[in-house]
Amino acid sequence: MLILSLIGLLAAAFAVYTFILWFNQYTRIHAQYQFFTKEHSIAMVFSYALMFFGNSWMHTALLAHEDSMNGALLLTAGVLLFVGVIINNFLHAPKRYALIGSIAQIILYIPIAIGAVIIVAVVLAWASGTKPVYVVNN
């Protein structure tokens, strides 16, 4: 069952990737604007990560009756970055394409952000290079 799940995950990722390529080409031709660029990807992934971790931090602090300002600041930064990308879409694309492209970004960048956070966590764990500790003086 694990193999089938992995195959399904890869098929879904390929379908999303194919849709993004098609959508970018379509909007480049009809609206002279691309919604799925490297800059948008970075901004949206950071935005979702900041909103998720800021909300989590704020919720944890509120439950522990501690200062929740740090979480609120992260959440606010994530929301501002998110709104900035949407505003940028509406400034540079016709309204109809901006609305459809923004909705597509909002939906498709969620799994992309989750995957990016997992990949970054794995790379950081691998790069930390933790080694076993051996006790010599026993």
Summarize this entry quickly.
This protein has 138 residues and is an all-alpha fold. It is built from four helices and no strands.
Shape: extended
What share of residues is helical? over 70%
List unreliable stretches of 5+ residues: none
End-to-end gap: 47 Å
Give the strand tally.
0
Percentage of β-strand residues: under 5%
Structurally, the number of domains stands at: 1
The class by helix and strand makeup works out as: mainly alpha
- Tell me the radius of gyration: 20 Å
SSE pattern? HHHH
**Count of helical segments?**
4
Please state the average pLDDT score.
91
Biggest sheet statistics: none
What does the secondary structure layout of this molecule look like, with pairings?
Elements: H1 2-30, H2 38-63, H3 69-92, H4 95-128
Helix pairs in contact: 2-3, 2-4, 3-4
How would you explain this protein's 3D organization?
This protein has one domain. The protein is an all-alpha fold and 138 residues long. The protein is extended, with a radius of gyration of 20 Å. The model has no long low-confidence stretch (mean pLDDT 91). It has helices spanning 2-30, 38-63, 69-92, 95-128.
Record keyword descriptors for this entry.
138 residues, mainly alpha, 4 helices, extended
